[in-house]
Amino acid sequence: MQARLIPMSSDYHNSTQRSATLEEETRTTIEEARMVLPGIQALFGFQLVAVFNGRFQDLTGVEQVLHLIALLMVAIAVGLIMTPAAYHRIAERGIVSRKFVDLASRFIECAMLPLMFGIAIDLFLLARLILKQVPLSAAVAIAMLLILLTLWYVFPWTAVALRARRREHKS
Fold first, then answer.
1. 3-state SS of the chain: helix, strand, coil percent to 5?
2. How is the chain split into domains, by residue range?
């Protein structure tokens, strides 16, 4: 089945903000998951291959377990990202619903958390191999964790709070 492009109305191009239709929200949610999934899958693949690399043996036993934890975190993120598609195919095939949009949005939002930790843990391990300093490697990983937390959660939550505040001032 081929995807069908639906052009946006002229109101979309002439206004600064408007409410999306349920169909547009559904399409946007599905596109968001489609954009995130290939990156997660690529990371997951690299994590799997790393175990068979000779340098993996340079990691301590604890660090190898940390890599396994990072791998599990990314696998959880994959599961969370793919759950809305499975749910829609089984429970709401052919239906566009607010329930699906809300459910899919929550799953995508939740998927970013284990992904963020998986990236940070593996970045710590990579930095440890390169820098050979645990404290500096931990600082690099924590900095990345904070950057991703800010970009993926704080930034959007701040936008929601600002929008709510603007609405309060208008009323």
1. 80, 0, 20
2. 22-170
